[in-house]
Amino acid sequence: MHEFTPEVESLAQEILDYSLIRLKDNPPLDGPKSVEELFALVGNTITAGGLGGSAALSIFKDVLAPACISTDHPRYLAFIPSAPTEAANLFDLVVGASALYGGSWLEGAGAVFAENQALRWISDLAGLPESAGGVFVQGGTIGNLSALVTARNHARSLFSDVTRWVVACSGEAHSSIKAAADVMDIELLKVATDRDGIMQGAAAQSAIEAYESSHAGHRVFAIVATAGTTNLGIIDDLHGIADYANSRGIWFHVDGAYGLAALCSPDVKPKFDGVEKADSLIVDPHKWLFAPFDACALIYRNPSLAKRAHLQHAEYLDTLNDDGEWNPSDYAIQLTRRSRGLPLWFSLATHGTDAYAEAMNKTMAVARAAADLIKAHPRLELLVEPNLSIVAFTRPGWDAAAYQAWSDKLLADQIGFVTPSAHNGQPILRFAIVNPWTQVSDIEAILATL
Ligand SMILES: *Cc1c(COP(=O)(O)O)cnc(C)c1O
Fold first, then answer.
1. Which atom of ligand 1 is nearest to the CA of 144?
2. Which of 95, 302, 320, 390 has the greatest number of C-beta atoms within 10 Å?
3. Nearest atom (ligand 1) to Cα of 142
């Protein structure tokens, strides 16, 4: 198994050929099958003697891969799609082939250096100080959790007599904040948003003060502002929330898993004014920064606070901990880590940052065109003017079941992948446009079915 034999050589060729075809040709949208259907097609693939590489690859190519929706298809507009650049995807092959260890400087200095330059680019765009730094983690969920663990650890050193820690966010915040609160066994305080879905600084202040005065011993240690909500692309009042948080010694975390990618466009960047005051922030390059799964950039204003919370100690690790070098493992909940920031780094190094601004502006322009098409559509209503690249709308008269039936048929007909969501208890549809391959004609094709 560990020898590079002539059989391996020919398998390598088959695998590279398949990978290049997948990259070069527009993939079909494809879609899921049931366990029973898949079992009927492939049976049990794990056998004592093995199937051989060619046969196993054929099973993947012919059956398993087509049972996975192509998240980079131009008419995949559900959830948040993915749209890696060719360079980023190609470099993922290199990362996979290279047995890089991305956890410590000792083992992965070159890789860590490159990842850190990519993090520096994001950090500089956000306006964080030179001393800021962080790590690429698996996704926004782990990024948010790691940041909040750091924040609570810091709060414990500042405030005594606290019986219950509390994190505040808006009702529009991502589900991962609730998940983090559950894991950490802390309270979640939901702050009411204004009519436009924005959490304002003043609302955060009055909600937190009312909560704390009626819950003796409870203390809010962090406020999570969302910079581009997943459902509608709403950006909270970053300045106002930061100023209140600072005045109370509360950690200010900005969840920009989707939205903060748009910092790379000078046209959009001003929407995020106030992000420079963040104690920590996240952005997922696997969403709107054109990198493959899975990568979340987690950046701290003061990384030493993160290291204090996350550094693992053991006899076998102290040789790493004592050398004073930058060890990415120390800044989140993780130890062993893939150098998952390298595909983004390689693509940035290849194309330069101007190309990112251009690609970003293209997706924003398609989102605006989609909003105009919806406004002109006889049976549709735009829910809100798109703030970033998410376009939310309704088809008045349809109930949730009608939306779901339409969505199922759209996929079954291989026209597009758009799933229903809800807003204020009402079913809605939304297009999340992050793929520069998505054209206005793709939007028209989907709207024609409504
Ligand atoms: C997607 C998303 C997350 C979670 O990120 P994952 O990478 O899916 O774990 C968190 N916050 C926001 C605003 C998101 O859009």
1. 10
2. 390
3. 9
φ, ψ for residue 335, nearest 5 deg: -135, -80
Residue 86 included in any domain: no
Ligand 1 — pocket residues by CB below 6 A?
80, 139-141, 144, 174, 176, 226, 230, 255, 257-258, 284, 296
pTM of the full structure: 0.98
Return the SS3 of 255: strand
pLDDT in tens, 152-188: 999 999 999 999 999 999 999 999 999 999 999 999 9
AA letter at 152: R
In the block, residue with structure tokens 């924005």: 198
Using CA positions, which residue lies closest to atom 5 of ligand 1? 140
The type of residue at 99 is A
Query: Looking at ligand 1, which atom is closest to the CA of residue 296?
Result: 7
Is the model's pLDDT at 385 over the cut of 90? yes
Query: Do 293 and 82 form a contact (C-beta atoms < 8 A)?
Result: yes
Euclidean distance between CA atoms 405 and 342, whole angstroms: 40
CATH of the domain at 169: 3.40.640.10
Contact (Cβ atoms closer than 8 angstroms) between residue 225 and residue 207 = no
Whether residue 367 sits in one domain with residue 236: no
Q: Name which of 253, 274, 279 is nearest 263 in CA terms.
A: 274
* CA–CA gap between residue 194 and residue 200 (Å, rounded): 7
Residues 273 and 131 in one domain: yes
Structure confidence by residue, pLDDT tens digits, 251-306: 999 999 999 999 999 999 999 999 999 999 999 999 999 999 999 999 999 999 99
- The tokens describing 264, both together, are 């790379």
